[in-house]
Specification:
heterodimer, A: alpha/beta, Rossmann fold, two-stranded antiparallel ribbon, 5 helices, B: 7-stranded mixed sheet, 7-stranded mixed sheet, 27 helices, about 25% strand
């Protein structure tokens, strides 16, 4: 049976936010079911509406973050799933993996201050025209934590122009009042980019902040909850009117 | 062939110990056997000097006598069926010569102690101590280097394995020049009916080696940890192991999954003394023997001898006994996670550890002799001469400062007190999404455990080494009291303690006196607070030829919340809230100069005789817990390092609120002579057992005062929270929050940016 509200969370050796993402979706917010997709699997089971590539240190971040994971068998399937319009959400290490896989443009390099950085950051929602942000209001400022050593987004000027032209920058680091200043990105990200979107129908999201860590008041912020609500809404619509085919 | 005494002496065995070995074996030991004995009979593994003293800890004594000394203690988590497992361990010597790997492997080692019991690690804390980091001296530069790389080592390891580093403490003092302390604590949770054993059993059961291959790293690490650091220590860098957190993460997942199959009879990590420790301890605990062949051990290099294989301290390795017939099933779990898993031998009924190399016997020793029969020594203890001098020093002769505001800023910028944001932002504090009270937000870290029905626990580490230097007995008591106070301030009930006893050489009477005094003080306090020591570790020889550390008995404490109690944080919240100082009855006359940061910073003096009123302390803690439980308090923060005004300033900064401090001087007068205390004592004194709380005026305030009265403690009104961005003390000082913040938050980044 197809359950459009079922998400698959990829598990690489070294993933460590896999359980958190699964838990945020299924338990904390009660939006549906979560299943894990082991890195050596060669098919994404039927009925999975979205795939999360979680945070952590896949394969120990050998060579550089995400460099090995993009060759995992499961990533061939994730790429096919994404190309068919399936929703794919890469968080932190997952964003790095999606960039390494070529599913999203640009790269994540060492933080400007050359140190790991874990803190809550303010993000400005740049567009609500996406399956991941439709429940936010345009320009809304949300607090979501980051935790990364290699989160400084960089890309070519042409790519940056294209990202802006297509309104593909989803989140930017900002001040509490929503202004985006030179120092708003603690990691030194180009143009304060925290998350971008790609794919044939804006169905692939990569972001460094951790929306699964900001879904309950007791975790300090609920700023990430609307992202998951947005995804559920997008899945519900997709489930009612299947517009894509799962490979 | 007679053995040259030089061989065993160099490995740290004395003549009488060697004689005992010959007697036990009924022959001369060979080189491999001497090596195995020397690591197991080192202080680090055998506790030869500390064991007799540690019997002061009731739980330790009980466990030792019943033979149930497992790898870490277990505290039940209400009626959830789950238990909390926790332990703290030192990695001081390795960190002194190779700070990054030393600290990283310290974290890795303590994590293995937790998951080897079948518990999933849910939090780490780290108590770190370094020499002075201010100034441009070579020593200060070296200390900054050690600080930077220890923090990075702790962070990189914990971040990668996905266990949040939620708390700890950092002290800076010249006594740690050349002797940094790295005490890593790990906390895990386990179903109480599924606690894994470290006992080998079942004659004929296969012995499984799991994890990283064995290399030549860390040979004699345990012996290295049991001597004084010298100039030559740098050359022992090769004795320091190299950590691989990625493998550790795989080992956590694979071990928990393999234990869930039920096919594992016993399991233990291989840390200090490696395979020697794993085989002999597991066999001794089970009253059985174990026979292995080093040719079957996965090894990184060819040509490794039995001696090297048995003494290697390569990291991320475990030893398990598997139920006969389930070999393939258990092995498959580890292989799924991409780990080595090789059967290297069997459990025997001989009671002996037999090590073969391609079938040729290289060692044959009774397991119990290695694991349990390390000779113990009652060393000579003598009170050092400095004690009388520092305790009787006249602390009343100093002039009052000209500018109290400047003193407050200097205290806030002193590295021991200053914000450690620079440190904790390098730690992943939130992975596993269970952290409710983050560093800097409360007196203890609070995590809510999903698997255990969101039951909350509070965690802290504490030890003020200055108090322990001035009076090791009382100082250790204060360390326990402060930990319990921190647990109480967030609203949890103190439950149990793990300790890390860091001391200089016990072979000097002064060092051994400090050790026995501190252990007895800690044991007495743990008894009084109802927090038994359930696990721990001893680290001696924290001294160089020029310098010895202050006695540092670090306390790691776990508290448990009653259901539905909302944790209390330390930040002032609302304009107009009233600020009270909770303290034991009749304690207003104590100056608290003894061992204070104020005395040290202003007058360069570590002196005085610290005091603790345990009954008063317990009443103060009960008051704050009752008030948090009833939801009365807006904030609670203990007044410790830097005194009451520093605590108030920290609550201001955390809440981004100002405060008007209005003190009735009569509340701080000597009850006998009636003499008023100087302002420096009122503001910066570090009398123990005091908590700063804020509360809404009216019903909550009255309820708090009722509780205080019922507990027989003093709740002294000392001011009001103000949304005016200033901290002022009427007629004494008035400083804007921006200046406080710059001093408090800027101090460590400014020092560390110097390089």
């Amino acid at each position: 049976m197809n359950s459009p509200l079922k998400i698959g969370v990829v598990m690489f050796p070294g993933s460590n936010c896999d359980r958190d993402a699964a838990c945020a979706w299924a338990d904390d917010l009660g939006l549906g079911e979560s299943v894990f997709l082991w890195h050596t699997e060669t098919a994404i089971p039927a009925g999975i509406g979205a795939v999360v590539v979680p945070g952590g240190f896949s394969y120990g971040d050998a060579l550089r973050a995400g460099a090995i994971a993009c060759f995992a068998p499961i990533m061939t399937e994730v790429a096919a799933f994404a190309k068919d319009g399936g929703f794919v959400l890469g968080i932190c290490n997952g964003f790095q993996v999606l960039c390494e896989s070529g599913l999203l443009p640009g790269a994540l390099v060492r933080n400007e201050q050359m140190r790991f950085l874990c803190r809550p950051v303010n993000l400005r929602v740049e567009t609500t025209d996406s399956p991941f942000t439709n429940r936010y209001t345009p320009g809304e400022v949300v607090s979501i934590p980051v935790a990364h050593g290699e989160g400084r987004y960089v890309c070519s000027p042409e790519t940056l122009a294209e990202l802006h032209r297509t309104e593909s920058v989803l989140f930017r680091y900002c001040e509490p009042d929503g202004t985006v200043g030179e120092k708003s990105a603690a990691n030194g990200s180009q143009d304060n980019i925290a998350g971008i979107i790609g794919g044939v129908r804006r169905n692939i999201l990569g972001m460094m902040p951790h929306p699964e860590r900001a879904v309950l008041p007791r975790l300090g912020s609920e700023g990430g909850a609307k992202l998951w609500y947005s995804l559920r809404e997008s899945l519900a619509i997709a489930g009612a009117e299947p517009v894509f085919v799962i490979a | 062939m007679a053995i040259d005494p030089k061989i065993y002496r160099e490995m740290g065995l004395n003549d009488s110990e060697y004689g005992l070995i010959v007697e036990t074996l009924g022959r001369e030991p060979n080189y491999t056997e001497i090596g195995m004995y020397s690591v197991m009979w080192s202080e680090h593994c055998g506790y030869k000097y500390s064991r007799p003293v540690l019997k002061a800890f009731a739980e330790y004594k009980k466990a030792q006598e019943s033979g149930a000394l497992e790898n870490a203690g277990v505290v039940p988590l209400g009626d959830t069926g789950w238990g909390v497992v926790f332990k703290m361990e030192s990695h001081n010597h390795p960190s002194a010569v190779e700070p990054y790997q030393g600290a990283a492997t310290g974290v890795g080692g303590i994590l293995r102690d937790i998951f080897t019991m079948g518990a999933r690690p849910v939090a780490n804390l780290d108590s770190l101590r370094f020499g002075t980091i201010t100034g441009d001296s070579d020593t200060a530069k070296r200390n900054r280097y050690l600080f930077e790389h220890v923090v990075k080592g702790v962070g990189d390891y914990g971040n990668c394995v996905g266990v949040p580093t939620v708390g700890g403490e950092i002290y800076f003092h010249p006594c740690y020049n050349g002797n940094p302390l790295v005490n890593a604590m790990s906390v895990g949770i386990v179903r109480r009916d599924r606690i894994a054993s470290a006992k080998a059993s079942g004659i004929g059961n296969p012995v499984l080696y799991v994890g990283s291959a064995t290399g030549r790293d860390g040979i004699h690490g345990a012996t290295f940890a049991s001597v004084t650091l010298t100039e030559e220590s740098e050359a022992k860098r090769a004795n320091v192991q190299v950590g691989d957190p990625f493998t550790e993460k795989l080992l956590i997942e694979a071990t928990l999954e393999a234990l869930a199959t039920g096919g594992i009879v016993g399991i233990q990590d291989m840390g200090a003394a490696g395979l020697t420790c794993g085989t002999s301890e597991m066999a001794a605990k089970g009253g059985v023997g174990m026979e292995i062949d080093v040719q079957l051990v996965p090894r990184r290099e060819t040509g490794m001898t039995a001696y090297e294989t048995m003494l290697s301290e390569s990291q991320e390795r475990m030893l398990a006994v598997v139920e006969c017939g389930r070999e393939a099933e258990v092995q498959a779990v580890f292989h799924k996670w991409g780990l080595n898993a090789a059967y290297i031998g069997t459990v025997t009924d001989s009671g002996r550890v037999v090590v073969k190399d391609d079938g040729v016997v290289k060692a044959d020793i009774p397991a119990k002799s290695l694991a349990d029969d390390c000779p113990t020594y009652f060393l000579q203890a003598a009170e050092p001469e400095y004690i009388a001098r520092v305790q009787t020093a006249d602390l009343t002769k100093f002039a009052e400062p000209d500018d109290y505001g400047a003193v407050l800023l200097a205290l806030l910028a002193s590295p021991t007190i200053a914000s450690k944001r620079w440190v904790w932002e390098q730690y992943d504090t939130q992975v596993q999404t269970q952290t409710e009270v983050l560093p800097g937000r409360g007196d203890a870290a609070v995590i809510a455990l999903r698997e255990a029905n969101n039951a909350r626990i509070a965690l802290t580490t504490d030890c003020n080494p200055r108090f322990c230097y001035l009076d090791p007995f009382v100082g250790a008591q204060i360390a326990v009291a402060e930990a319990a106070r921190n647990i109480s301030c967030v609203g949890a009930i103190p439950r149990a303690v793990t300790d890390c006893l860091n001391f200089p050489s016990p072979e000097k009477p002064s060092g051994f006196w400090q050790f026995t005094q501190a252990v007895n003080g800690m044991a007495a306090a743990c008894e009084a607070f109802g927090t038994p020591v359930v696990s721990g570790n001893v680290s001696f020889y924290n001294e160089t030829p020029d310098n010895a550390i202050y006695p540092t008995p670090t306390v790691g404490m776990v508290g448990v919340f009653a259901p539905d109690v909302i944790p209390c944080t330390l930040d002032f919240k609302t304009d107009g809230d009233l600020i009270y100082l909770l303290r034991p009855e009749g304690s207003g006359g104590i100056t608290g100069y003894a061992g204070s940061e104020y005395l040290s910073l202003q007058h360069g003096l570590d002196a005085g005789k610290p005091a603790l009123d345990i009954a008063g302390e317990i009443a103060v803690q009960q008051t704050v817990r009752d008030a948090v439980t009833a939801g009365l308090l807006a904030s609670a923060h203990d007044a410790s390092d830097g005194g009451a005004l520093v605590a108030i300033a920290e609550s201001c900064l955390a809440g981004n609120r100002g405060a008007e401090v209005r003190v009735a001087i009569a509340e701080f007068s000597d009850p006998v002579s009636g003499a008023d205390q100087p302002w420096s004592a009122i503001l910066f004194g570090e009398a123990t057992s005091r908590i700063i709380v804020s509360v809404t005026e009216g019903a909550a305030q009255n309820a708090l005062l009722d509780i205080a009265e019922a507990q027989g403690i003093e709740a002294v009104y000392i001011g009001q929270v103000k949304k005016n961005d200033r901290l002022d003390v009427a007629g004494i000082m008035d400083v804007p929050l921006t200046a406080l913040r710059d001093a408090y938050e800027g101090a460590i980044p400014r020092l560390m940016d110097k390089g």
